[in-house]
Write a structure and sequence with these properties.
Blueprint (H helix, E strand, L loop, with lengths): L1 H10 L8 E5 L4 H16 L5 E8 L4 H18 L3 E5 L2 H8 L3 H20 L3 E3 L4 H14 L3 H4 L5 E3 L7 E3 L7 H11 L15 H16 L4 H30 E4 L3 E5 H5 L3 H14 L9 H12 L6 E4 L3 E6 L2 E5 L6 H5 L2 E2 L4 E5 L4 E9 L2 H10 L4 E5 L8 E3 L6 E2 L8 E2 H7 L12 E4 L2 E5 L3 E2 L11 E9 L3
Amino acid sequence: MIKQLAQELSSDRLLKNDEVVVLGVSGGPDSMALLHLLLELNKSAGWELHLHVAHLNHQLRGDQANEDAAFVQAACDSMSIPCTIDQRDIRKSAAAEGLSIEEMSRRERYAFFERVCIQTGARAVALAHHADDNAETILHRVLRGTGLRGLAGIPRSRPLGPGSQIRVVRPLLRFTKAELQRFLVDAGVAFREDRTNTSNEAMRNRIRNILLPAIEQEVNPQVRDALNRLGLQARWLEEFLVETVQRTFETIVISRTDRSVVLNADAVLRKSRIVQAELVRTAYVALGLGEQDLAFAHLSAVLEILADPASGKQSQLPGGLVVEKRYGQLSFTMPTTESREALADEIAVHCPGRTVLPVRRLELECSTQEVRDCDIHRLRRQATRMEEFVDVTAVHGPLVIRSRKPGDRFTPLGAPGSKKLADFLADEKIDPKDRERVAILCDQLGPIWVIGHRIDDRVKLTELTRAVLHLRAKRLES
């Protein structure tokens, strides 16, 4: 098993032999198997991975969750493995933001992983998803009505977030749960059982505990293998499409600015339907918009316009993007009018990475760096209205950019206390009609930077700062 794992890590380039890796460890059998397999890889296969365990207590299961955290800490202490443990009140946060427990858990977990990676210098987060998880995911997506991309299942490797340089990798995706269980027994590895996995309240658990066993017994004993083969072939098709569409896209672009993309409509129309759809998706993403908002219905609407011989028809996509076919051209144009509603939308920030705010004509770049005591004063002097440096450990991601909201408060750097954001903008002598246009960078606790004006005192650099989030905003050219 160790030999197979080493071969797959090398051939798929999931991990480098000597890199720093953050491991998401819950204390359950899968994540404990991942931890001990990578330790064995170092011990017997000549690898030199620098492992750092990360465990987030979601506070959803009372004492059991606390015991899980203590178990992970004790296991790491016994093996002299560095470990970071944190906790979040997921139920409270989900209620406050109107999100499901599952979605809020995922958001907080990935934000936590990002913070640990920044603090440790890691560029990879290893998670313990296996072949059975992949089969369940594919079937779940089929039942919800997935597209072709959903059939590809769980990716072996992907960025932690849009534009992020940190990768999420899944070294165990080609191992079955049964194989991992045999390893745990043979190696004598202790683990914790999550009792919620036996509950059939969640759809995912019903698929795992009821539907798949029934299909195995009544229809196809090898259904999990069949689903994984389907996922693999869908992944091959996706890789082929991405490569093909990217080459094609560059040849049919008539013009391109930061506010618009114009394609040769006749050239697009000559392509197969699936390539047409992916070209539309590529144009949408090229304008800095997140493809997760783009649904099948949006793509279909644009393809109908493309196929119609008439000229001048339009369709609007998420983000206010207007698509129009006119005189042999298919144009994608950001709106020229800036409604209050568009300005008020929350935009997820790529951290690290580049985030474009088309309506505000603004771009934000985020990057991280380690610092020493002697760097702090230099960075403070380097800060400007459009460039700031904040303490990574004081930031509670994920980050968003939005307009001010009623009741927003923050403590301007150097001020004696907090004040209403509306009062701060007035003190800055910003014209009342322009105050809704001011971009506010927020973490989960509230504003951290009124872009172009001041950061919040709670995220300032101190003599204890060891990791810095570098924020740089710039105006987009008209």
